[in-house]
Task: inverse folding
């Protein structure tokens, strides 16, 4: 099942469809009833900007030792790029927990695709 999902996501990325879907999702989430809720509860601890960009978001889970070594609390959020800046290095695949939430991130590492930073 995951193999078919990865192939599907790969096709979306390859043909630029992912960006279009994301833009449409962002347009939906800029409606006032969504924007207020999202921006108030999911702010990056580094830059202060919401970590969510529509329904397609880049949630991830790092191992606690990595998260805490950058000085973050368990209750905080951060964009990958902001986290790397505070950590002082780029994240590597071994920093990400093996869990369903990180399936796409591990697939991106396996296929040498750049992680979304913002």
Result:
């Amino acid at each position: 099942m995951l193999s078919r999902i990865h192939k599907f996501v790969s096709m979306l990325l390859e043909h630029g469809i992912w960006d279009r879907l994301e833009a449409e999702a962002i347009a939906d989430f800029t409606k006032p009833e969504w924007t207020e809720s999202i921006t108030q509860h999911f702010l990056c601890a580094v830059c202060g900007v919401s970590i969510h960009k529509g329904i397609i978001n880049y949630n991830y889970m790092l191992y606690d030792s990595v998260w805490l070594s950058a000085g973050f609390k368990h209750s905080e959020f951060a964009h990958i790029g902001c986290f790397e800046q505070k950590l002082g290095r780029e994240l590597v695949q071994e920093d990400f927990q093996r869990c369903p939430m990180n399936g796409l991130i591990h697939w991106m590492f396996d296929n040498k695709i750049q992680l979304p930073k913002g």
Residues 2-110 form one domain. Residues 78 and 118 are 9 Å apart (CA to CA). The helical segments are 2-14, 17-29, 32-41, 64-69, 80-87, 103-110. The chain has a mean pLDDT of 77.
